[in-house]
Task: structure prediction
Amino acid sequence: MLPYQTLINIETSSKRAIYEQIAMSLMNLINSGTIPAGTKLPSTRMLGEQLKIHRKTVIAAYEELEIQGWIISKNKSGYYVNSNISIPTISSGSELGTKYPAQSPIAIKGNYSQSFNERNLSNVLFLDDGLPDPRIAPYKILLREFKSLTDRDYNLKRANYGTSFNSSQLKRVLSAHLSKSRGINLSSENVFITNGAQMGIYLIAKALINPGDTFIIGKPGYNLAEQALKENGARTIGVSVDEKGIDVDNIEELCKKEIVKGVYVIPHHHFPTTVTLSPDRRIKLLSLARKYNFVIMEDDYDYEFHYTSAPYLPMASYNHYGHVIYVGSLSKCFSPALRLGFIVGPNDLVNAVAQIRKTIDIRGDLLLENSFAALLENGEIERHIRKSNKLYKERRDYMCEQIDLHLKDVVTYQVPAGGMAIWMRFLKEYNVEKIRLLVERHEISLSHNIIFSQYEEMNHIRLGFASLNFQEISICINAIKKSILEYDAY
Result:
């Protein structure tokens, strides 16, 4: 008889039930050929004694294997490995379990190779590219509203219907909020709720783009937006971004040469450079859209955060004759973990993106959306935004002080008028990729989104400040300072 007590390994600390562990071990032994088809298994009492467990646990394991067809029971004879199971020949040295081979027969179309290394999130601090601080988000108030909704059975029943079209209270409340705060005077029928702005960008691209359509984007720019456009068949052309935003004159020259389907633009705080598109360029871009009949996809991901003066209203609030599609995020004014965004556009676009979304995400989270709508309607979100603006301005100013104190000889930057990040350029003798590696030795994890060295004359870090308190900002800037000293020592 096989030494089952050594072949079957039971981990008492495992969350998996012991009978399931026994069943899985026997399954692997059968599958590997260690226990051949037709073999009689030990009695439940005998195997229980060998494994030092109760007989009923073995009975449960055998019953599980019998249900799955691995073994059969014969009256008054015991349990046998099912002779009808076709066991593949496995060469010696093969590993058991569900590990995929190095060369899997699952063929992936396109190139989806991992473009960055996994970061060690167990490090002391994580530097992001400009995210809000979830520690100050009014989660308790949101949960209170959530509980209020779930305490009513009819709300739970309605939650089954999801938010494909007009069932979400958030659409109605948000349309009023956009009218009040941004001058976008459209009805809730022109609003579609998404799981973040990135989903909105992808859905719009899916609805609009035919293979080969030309989309203009800013360079440097938001790579995930460009990827969404390309994934849906667009050919993208990069146009430079300077201190006044995307170069609209260059866009005009391109429109004279070829048919342009659309322009993706971040006019409020361009990613990654944080610059604002000037009023004259906004007006000219809208004029070009009307003249050459292209779409403007306006990504306004952090409109709420401005520190020196009132922000320019989005182009979606202008008389754009239907050429602007507006994309925004609610996550930025609350917490990155809250995946809520929106699209504002014509009715046919809203209907189209609703149908497309169903193919990947049947419905939104109605209870979450309505809970957030309550906070938006009763003024809690507005109060939180005011509090966040004050706090983030203080953190911006403190980070700038620390940069001036410790890094003024090796970096240049402009104090951002808003947003949640600083666009910082290292002198050319300091390679930003090497700086990143040195910084991570000081227990600081860096998001892959914050390093920019892929374009000519670019040696930048987009350094988020909003999610860090004063102490954390000091630790991070000091880590960069130490890394510079280590760099000079090489």
About this structure: The two ends are 65 Å apart (CA to CA). The chain has a mean pLDDT of 87. DSSP finds 16 helices and 16 strands in the chain.
